[in-house]
Write a structure and sequence with these properties.
Number of strands: 7
CATH topology of the largest domain: Alpha-Beta Plaits
Distance between the termini: 84 Å
Largest sheet: 5 strands, antiparallel
Number of domains: 2
CATH superfamily of the largest domain: Ribonuclease P, Pop5 subunit
Structural class: alpha+beta
Number of helices: 6
């Protein structure tokens, strides 16, 4: 075999290997956690900065066959969140029931912006709170507590 032909085969093999390595790294990046995706590069400086998780407030309404207490609702939500996503995701998202109006059966839940979709999914999947059957209706997602309180107050 001619040395020129051998170098062409070597170059093609190296190109194929680099394309395969690029495909594997893109696949690995796509399956990385949300915390890693929160890292961004500043334009022009080349420094890596971790984005601070922001808070999101989710206003929701409960439609239940019996009135529900705040503590029972928190326990049911936490149990279901842990069942679906695990304790580590629950700790990262840190959802907290900030406001619950028992007379209107509506409230506001605070969570991290990275896990807002997780929280809304668990709210939608919540069917039993204590011994009563319930349906949770997310009303609005806001960046400020004041706007969500207004949405809850306007309910009914």
């Amino acid at each position: 075999m001619d040395p020129v032909d051998a170098s062409i085969y070597i170059a093609v093999a190296a190109l194929t290997a680099s394309i395969l390595a690029l495909a594997v790294s893109v696949k690995a990046y796509g399956t990385a956690s949300r915390a890693i995706r929160a890292a961004v590069l500043l334009k022009g400086s080349g420094k890596e900065v971790i984005v601070k998780p922001r808070k999101r407030y989710i206003a929701f309404s409960l439609v239940c066959d019996k009135p529900v207490d705040k503590g029972v609702l928190e326990d049911a939500f936490t149990r279901l969140y842990t069942e679906y996503f695990g304790k580590s995701t629950l700790q990262k998202a840190s959802p907290q029931l900030i406001l619950f109006l028992e007379d209107k059966q509506a409230g506001v839940l605070r969570t991290s912006h990275l896990y807002r979709d997780h929280t809304v999914a668990v709210l939608g999947a919540l069917k039993h709170v204590g011994d009563s059957k319930c349906v949770v209706i997310p009303l609005k997602t806001c960046g400020s507590l004041r706007k969500c309180r207004e949405a809850v107050e306007r309910k009914r």
